[in-house]
Amino acid sequence: MSTTTQTIAARPRTARPPRKRALWRDPQGRISALKSITLVALTLPAIVILTQWSLGMLGPRANTQAIHGFGLWTIRLLWLTLAISPLTACFGWPRLLLIRRMLGVATAIYGAAHLALYIYDEQFDMLKVATEIAIRFYLTIGFVALLGLAALAITSTDGWVKKLRANWLRLHRLIYPIALLALWHMALQSKSNVSEAVWMAGILSGLLILRLIARSWRTRQITLWPLALASALIAAGAEAGWYALRNHIDPGVVFATNFDPDYGIRSPLGAGLVVAAIAVISLTLRVIGKRPL
Question: Which of 115, 227, 255, 258 gets the highest tally of CB atoms within 10 A of its CB?
């Protein structure tokens, strides 16, 4: 071996900097079907809204409809993000955790698009935008929620997890008050029709109750069934209270409609049925897999 070759061989090999992992790959670097499908699915609502907007399919108030569309999907994705941990535990699918960060970041992106379209609708008059946010309460709480989502998205990386350590978990627990603010903003914006907000209230109440009970009880059938009932009742109470305060309608009349078959399956009952369906599917999977209840 020549002196030059020996010198080169003796040089310490410098480790290559790790390549950034693609969004569609799992922690081991393999292509993940779950993450790939999720990535495509997350882009579809934006594509649909923007396509309808560009083709003039959103009616005479196209800008407003586009703004509301991105706002609705912000909240829907936020609820999906919140549901990942309970669903993982109930169904025994730990791989669902692979998409939680994707959902959280997508939530912030849709929220940013919601704000950007509002600024566009105001013809980029930032002074007017700032004034409207300051004086209109529903815009104020929506903006605060959006700032919170941005902070959580920015600090969702592995680097921030290491940097913040125990404070990272404390920071990301703010997702629950952020969700409450987002729901409040949605209800105020909805005005006369709060059906989807009521759905969201019932499901969020179930998720919050799960956070309050002992971890070992969170996935037991004895917990999930009362939780379904509680979610429906809380949603029904929230709806009745809302119409009483905003429209001065007797809350008893509104509450009673949930038990009238002529009105079909209304939002509060639907919220309870969602949790009940999770309980049924969870029970079925556990029985099939011969797992202890």
Answer: 227
Of 137, 257, 262, the residue nearest 198 (C-alpha): 257
The residue ranges of every structural domain in the chain are 32-190, 194-293
Pick from 225, 252, 226, 224: nearest CA to 239? 252
Answer yes or no: are the C-beta atoms of 287 and 280 closer than 8 Å: no
Rounded-to-integer distance, Cα 49 and Cα 231, Å: 31
pLDDT tens digits for range 36-94: 999 999 999 999 999 999 998 998 889 999 999 999 999 999 999 998 888 887 777 88
Distance between CA atoms of 70 and 117, rounded to whole angstroms?
Answer: 9
Residue 113 CB: number of other CB atoms within 10 A?
20
Q: How far is CA 15 from CA 12, 18, 19, in A?
A: 9, 9, 12
State the DSSP string of 35-85: HHHHHHHHHHHHHHHHHHHHTT-S-TTHHHHHHHHHHHHHHHHHHHHHHHH
Three-state DSSP state, 1: coil
Is the torsion defined by CA of 212, 216, 220, 223 positive or negative?
negative
How far is it, in rounded angstroms, from Cα 125 to Cα 39?
34
The reported pTM is 0.83
- Which tens digits make up the pLDDT trace of 101-150? 999 999 999 999 999 999 999 999 999 999 999 999 999 999 999 999 99
E strand intervals along the chain: none
**End-to-end distance of the chain based on CA atoms, in angstroms?**
67
From CA 276, how far away is CA 215, in angstroms rounded? 19
Distant-in-sequence, close-in-space partners of 102: CB < 8 Å, separation ≥ 6: 23, 35, 38, 39, 42
Task: Find out whether 202 and 233 touch, Cβ atoms under 8 Å.
Answer: no
User: What is the CB neighbour count within 10 angstroms for residue 44?
Assistant: 10
